[in-house]
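Researcher: Before we compare anything, I want clean individual predictions. No alignment, no superposition, just each chain on its own. First chain goes here; please echo the sequence and then give the structure tokens.
Model: Echoing the first chain and its structure:
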Amino acid sequence: MIDINKIKKVGIDAVFAAGAELAKRYEKYNRADFELKSFHEIVTAADVASEKIILSAIKKNFPDHKILSEEAGDNKKKSDFLWVVDPLDGTHNFSMHNPMWAVSVALFYQDEPVLGFIFAPMLKEFFLAEIGGAYLNGKKIKVSDINHDNAINTFCHSSSLSDIKKAIKYYSYQKLNNFDVRQLGSASLELAYVAAGRVESIFVPGARSWDVAAGVLLVREAGGVVSDFKNKEWNLKSKDMLATNGTMHAPILKVINKIK
């Protein structure tokens, strides 16, 4: 028997504990204190400390569960349960004292998302997704119904050159065709903003599961649509991701096809 309430409590407690640790480090962070993980990617001691808190909580309470985390990787366990963890989404923002960063954790059961937690400590915002609802600080949220004319769109990308080029093409096309588009620097928060009706979409070539997993469920439960660039439902094996309020999905897919 699955005790989803226990699982949810462990997840929430872990995310808040990690967020509290990150908040302490954020106040005194020195931007020189990072390492290059790969091209355009940095890792800080804060990422590692946050990850340790979250993974310790999962391992203590659910030792048989599979875990995929940005820094630690895959623990290779066989389980119907998979935790997908980004201990600090928006590391560049964190490093320059921009508060747009978050802890992002999702739980999948048999490859389907069932819980999502996104916590932005400096913004004092906690987003929760579960089957049946999407919430911000305990209040139910939903996507906007804003259409093409007034839409605000966001984008993110992986560190690969091909994905960066796709993102530049998308940005250029949208800006030159009277669409508002911007990069906020934290995919999980951009997804949360779609769910909360603050923006209408996020476009992500090279979407890595730990960056977007929690936000995918949040957008879906808030009434939005999440797919890959071929309009197939997003899953853990998808290489790209488009999440929208629904009304913007078809127009943005048209843009994606134009800029190939």
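Researcher: Okay. Second chain, same rules.
Model: Second chain and its structure:
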Amino acid sequence: MNMNTSAGNDNGNGILPDICANCGKEGDEINNICNKCKQVKYCNAACKKKHRHKHKQDCEEHVRLAAERAAALHDIELFKQPPPEEDCPICFVRLPTLYVTGRRYQGCCGKEICCGCVHAPRYDNQGNKVNNKKCPFCRTPDPTSEEKLFEKIRKLVDMDDPVAIYNMGGYYDEGRYGLHQNHNKALELWHRAGELGNTNAYASIGYAYKRGEGVDIDKKKATHYYELAAMTGNTIVRHNLGNSERRLGDMNRALKHYMIAVKGGYDKSLDEIKKLYSNGHATKDDYTKALRSYQAYLVEIKSSQRDEAAAFSEKYRYY
């Protein structure tokens, strides 16, 4: 189909010429645009109605192509490999993916510290070992009560710290630290944290839409926020998106998600790629690349200090 036959098609710079697609009249007053495809103009509603049967097929084709272009551009962004985790501010080794065990957020200074540096002995400027109940980065003593910890988090929220804002959203969501449970306030804080780059905030918003907590259940919006979380580096959400695509039968998209998650250090995605390979939905080369990506991740996060911490306690496991 020739898509350039309508008088109103743009002139190459995205701006529609002031020509009525029905009668050919020109002028500044030609501003009645097709509501559906936005690709042709008319001088009035009468011309639009008169031309409708001639324009219908082109209009539907414009809409179809626009949807395809939008989907293609979305996938380009969706399947980009996000930047790796930042380095630990103390040992300067890449932070591990495992948030609960492999790293810890410090409510005093807002830094994320790896398990090795959390567990390691701490010394003062003269080389003397100091009390381990101090932050390994800023040397602030650990809070002695939940109330004091909450006050530190509140101060970081006022300083636009994204992790603190995300945590505060969780406190409102669960009704902790004396706060009344407020899902709407939680969502407000999570949106703020997400805009500041916190990937877990987007995941929590997606979960809220999935479960209908503070909002109406909306699967489309849930997927939107899960995808934002994946695009900003949440490997667990990325893996779950892969699982969703696998259940829908799109093994190619599932594989793309798993490959990105593996490169980010998520071992469960490696297991899924192995299954796809065994079932003929991934190639040997795909599995080999996944293995190399995961091994490269392990090399990047490995340190003797983290090994010592992991050997000391399961709570410091980082791989």
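Researcher: What stands out in the second chain?
Model: The longest strand covers residues 103-105. Additionally, The chain is about 55% helix and 5% strand.
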